[in-house]
Design a protein that fits this description.
Shape: globular
Low-confidence stretches: 1-6
Strand content: 25-35%
Number of helices: 4
Largest sheet: 8 strands, mixed
Helix content: 25-40%
Number of domains: 1
CATH class: Alpha Beta
CATH superfamily: Nucleoside Triphosphate Pyrophosphohydrolase
CATH topology: Nucleoside Triphosphate Pyrophosphohydrolase
Order of helices and strands: EHEEEEHEEEHH
Length: 167
């Protein structure tokens, strides 16, 4: 794995944000277990020369992708583009994204509707993590990624791409 980051180490302010994210996420998980809501999120797999970009957020113990929840009135593609910019500082157009998976699964007490898009990039972008929400970002070969603790729908996307011989 190669690591790209805005700075080498998180600051005290960054650590405070990380703690706040963890606390807020635990509260959300409690709410989800009680209310059992349906959520809707959009994620993006960036591919470059057979490797994919994985991120690790400060508040969960698994690897995932840049992405997040879709705001009211926002399309899933627009949400994916917004999240790419917010989480890793990458600009893209909604039309550049290809839908790889649209699924709903039970996750952490909620009905989680997830749309995962792919974006093949010709040059490896410089990735900037904020050390607050996103604490790690790195490029991985698919076989290595499948050995990690992954967000389950992401595993499906990687395995599908490998079966098709696209990675």
């Amino acid at each position: 794995m190669t690591r790209d980051a805005a700075g080498d180490r998180p600051t005290l302010v960054d650590r405070t944000f990380q703690l706040a994210y963890k606390g807020a996420y635990q509260l959300m998980r409690t709410y989800w277990r009680v209310r059992r809501p349906t959520t809707h999120g959009a994620l993006v797999v960036l591919w470059h020369e057979g490797e994919l970009l994985l991120v690790r957020n400060s508040y969960v113990g698994y690897y995932t992708l840049p992405g997040g929840y879709i705001h009211n009135g926002e399309s899933s593609r627009d949400a994916a583009v917004r999240e790419l910019s917010e989480e890793i500082g990458l600009r893209a157009l909604p039309s550049e994204l290809e839908l790889a998976l649209d699924t709903t699964h039970e996750w952490e007490g909620k009905h989680d509707h997830v749309e995962i898009f792919t974006l093949d990039v010709t040059a490896r972008p410089k990735i900037q993590v904020d050390h607050r929400e996103v604490v790690e970002a790195g490029w991985h070969a698919p076989a290595r990624a499948l050995q990690l603790n992954l967000f389950p729908p992401l595993r499906t996307v990687i395995e599908t791409r490998l079966r098709r011989g696209q990675a």
